[in-house]
Amino acid sequence: MKLxxxxxPLWATxxxxxxxxxxxxxxxxxxAIVPLLALVMFVMGLTLSAAEFLRIRQDPKPVxxxxxxxxxxxxxxxxxxxTMLQLxxxxxxxxxxxxxxxxxxxxxxxxxxxxxxxxxxVSMTMTSTLxxxxxxxxxxxxxxxxxxxxxxxxxxISILQMVFIPVxxxxxxxxxxxxxxxxxxxxxxxVSVVIILLIISxxxxxxxxxxxDVGLLTLVAVVLHNLAGLGGGFCVSxxxxxxxxxxxxxxxxxxxxNSGLGVALALQFFSPTAALPGALFSVWHNISGSLLASYWGxxxxxxxxxxxxxxxxxxxKK
Length: 318
Known about the structure:
The protein is mostly helical. It contains 17 helices and no strands. The protein has a single domain (about 1-315), classed as Na+/H+ antiporter like fold (Up-down Bundle). Helix content is about 80%, strand content about 0%.
């Protein structure tokens, strides 16, 4: 299972290519995007417990800083990049939608692979998801009101249905029926990965024709958006005095958006073109995040080995 999860960027790339070529097969599953997204949120809820909420209460600063960065930095970066690169209105909508969404569930898997602070990652994802119920539609209204009409109330209802309710249900099941969840807990990250891969494939298939026409600028905007989020999340959190592990975790959370939700909202409220930045982001942020996780994970493993080796040498001298 760990090997399968660690090869996440490879599967995402391969399935994206397959979905691009055989797009008719995957695009027929368009109606499954919302249920699949809700299922991922439910699975994430199954990994949460009262202890996670207690952690937020005991040490809320990293979570609060990370969530603020999520909703302040990412939408501003999205609009700035879209304006600088002169993207169309609908592509700008898609960029801002992605930037205004909460942290993606894939970030928890990436954080695990990076040997980061998984509890902080889950807490941030949960908090940003709850805050996003209100923040996402408000941010879209604020940044896009002069460009397109935004149905803020409709966005709130959709996020409640796709995100909030499934997460609460999953957490409740974990709390009241922990004995049923525990035997399958080791499977949950892999289940999430498989569902996310399927969502990515459907999104790529739906946008296969548009990807050929959209041009290099949209891809550049998406890549820069993700990298700026990762870099900004890391640098700002270091300025706040958080340790390296916490800063790496916050970077992953800030840079990896719930782009699947952004795509679902774009298709429901705007246009297929508006879903394109989210589709590209879904593929790219999983690849960049996985590569970064591999690098950080190996460095942390090497450091832990060196520290253990030093400890053994000191004990031998004694």
